[in-house]
Amino acid sequence: MVGLRYTRAKRRNRFISFISLISMVGIALGVAVLIVVLSVMNGFQTEVRTRILGVASHLVLTGAGGALADWQSVARSAVEQPRVVAAAPFVEAQGLLSAEGTARGVLVRGVLPQDEDRVADFSQNMVTGRVDALQPGAFGIVLGADLARALRVLPGDKVALIAPQGIVTPAGLVPRLKQFTVVGTFDVGFNEADAGLALIHLAYAQRLYQMGDKVSGVRLKLRDPFEARAVGRELVGERTDLIGYDWSRSHPNLFRAVQIEKRMMFIILTLIVAVATFNVVSTLVMLVTDKQADIAILRTLGAAPRSIMQIFMVQGSVIGVLGTVLGVIGGVLLALNVETVVPAIEHAFSIQFMPKDVYMIPDLPSELQGADVLAIALISLALAFLATVYPSWRASKVNPAEALRYE
Q1: Distance CA 396, CA 348 (A)
Q2: Pairing relation of β-strands 197-201 and 140-144?
Q3: Rounded mean pLDDT of the chain?
Q4: How many Å from the N-terminal Cα to the C-terminal Cα in the chain?
Q5: 240 vs 64, 211, 232, 233, 322, CA distance in Å?
Q6: Which residue among 83, 138, 213, 390 is the one 20 to 30 A from 201 at the CA level?
C-alpha cells in the first residue's frame, strides 16, 4: 500500500513522480521499439527465404564436376520420396547478353517449362509473356524485369547470348553465340534474379554449352524446406556419383547475415531498455532521500528493514510492469501494422526507406513471433526489478536517529 501510494504525485514529490513517469515511458518505448525491430527482422528473414526459394530450389542433386548424365532416373527416384513434391532438370552457366550495343553478364538457366513451373514461381510473377513460350524451335528467352530494362529490350526484341565455351578455329578461339527472341519478363522481387537471370529451353542450353544429353542437375521442391538436408542425405545415400546441396547453401552468407543482424539488433536495443531502467534507479534514490523522515518514523513504529525494502521495490516494480505492458501493447500493435504505417509515412514525407535499386527487398515486411515478445517482456521486467535492489537496500539501512535529528 505504501509503495503504491509513493508512485502517485503528492505535495512534495511531484518532480519525483514526473521522473517516474519518464522512466515508465522510456521502458515502454524501448520495449515497443525492440518488438517492432525484431518483427521486421523476422519478416525480412522469411521474405528473403520465400523469394530465394521462389527462384532457387529446396534441394539440388548434381553429379561430379557439376554435370549429371542419367538425370531421368535420378528425377524418378527423387519424386518417389514422400517428402518431395516435384523435380525438374536444369542447365546453369554464365553467359553474356548483348542488345542495342549494351551487354550484361547473366546467369543462364536452361529449363523444361512444364517441369520448372512445379519447382519455381516464375509463372506467378510474369510481367509480360509466359514461361511456357520457351519451346523447341522458337529460340525464346525470358529475362528478369530489371535485366530487360538494363538491356533496353521488350518482348519481341532480339538479344545475342554469348557463351564462354568457344570453338577452336585456325583464327583462334571463337565464342559460341546464338540470337534469341525475348518472349517474356518476370519480377520475383528478388533483385539478384530480376537483374541477372535469363531462362531458355533446356535443349538450347545443352547445345550452347556443349553438354550433350547431360544437365547441371535436378532441382527438387519439398513439402517442408527445412527438411531439405535430411532428404538430401536420404536421396544421395551410398551413391558416389550424386552430390546434394540444399537451399541454405545456395546463399549462405545472406542467411547468416540476417541471423547475425537480428541477434545484434536484439542486444543493442536491449541496451535501450537497460538505459531506461537506470532512470528507475535515479527515481528511487531521490525518493529514498526525500522520504528519509517517513522511513525513520516507520522504523520507530516497528517496521523491519525488510518491509522498508519491499516498499521501494514495489514502487520500482510498478514502474517496470506498467512500462513493459504499455510497451508490449504498443509494439504489438505497431508490428502488426508496419506494412500500413510505413507506406503512409513514405507517402506523407515523399521518401522511400528501402529503394529497390539499393536493397534486395524493397518492402518492409513484419512477422510477429510470440516467443520474441515473451522474451522481451521478461527481460524488461527482470531489468526493472534489478534496478530496484540497490535503492531499496539503501532505504532499509536508514538510521532513524540520524534521519530525525533535524526534523
Answers
A1: 54
A2: antiparallel
A3: 81
A4: 25
A5: 9, 21, 13, 12, 62
A6: 83
CA-angle at 279, arms to 274 and 282, nearest 5° = 130
Q: Which three cell numbers stand for residue 328?
A: 508490449
Q: What cell numbers appear for 44 in the block?
A: 525480412
Q: What is the pTM of this model?
A: 0.68
The packing angle between helices 292-300 and 252-290, to 10°, is 70
Cell numbers 535501450 correspond to what residue?
A: 272
pLDDT at position 312: 73
pLDDT above 90 (res 269): no
